[in-house]
Amino acid sequence: MLSCTMEPRFCETDALGHINNTVVPMWFETARGPIFEVFNPGQDLSKWNVILRKIDVDFIAQIYHGHSVEIRTRIGYVGSSSCVCEHEAWQRGELVAKGTAVMIYFDFAQQCKQEIPSALRAELEKLS
């Protein structure tokens, strides 16, 4: 499992005084950084090989400015050409949001998905 800490910024709050719902998917994407590194060491955009198929977020409790948020990320599933990242957001010991992201191993030159090579699959499975 991977973990990173986000510090909510004042500009991420909304009129109701909590973190806006558009922010959490960005935090989850930030938390996928080490997974992008597995797919593409050095994250060279000219060699990029992964696309996002789907994301979902369940908002469980309000998230507030002034308190750190821990994002926990793991690989929940590795298929033949895709993987599912599972995310949880925790603030002050409480689960406040969770979600998933489906990522596809992709050949941009051919514009099609590819089978995940066994070495890459093994690295992803270490993050489950």
From TrEMBL:
The lineage of its organism: Bacteria, Pseudomonadati, Pseudomonadota, Gammaproteobacteria, Cellvibrionales. The keyword Transferase does not apply. The keyword S-adenosyl-L-methionine does not apply. Belongs to the 4-hydroxybenzoyl-CoA thioesterase family. Signal peptide: none annotated. Keywords: Hydrolase. InterPro entries: 4-hydroxybenzoyl-CoA_TE. This is Acyl-CoA thioesterase. Coiled coil: none annotated.
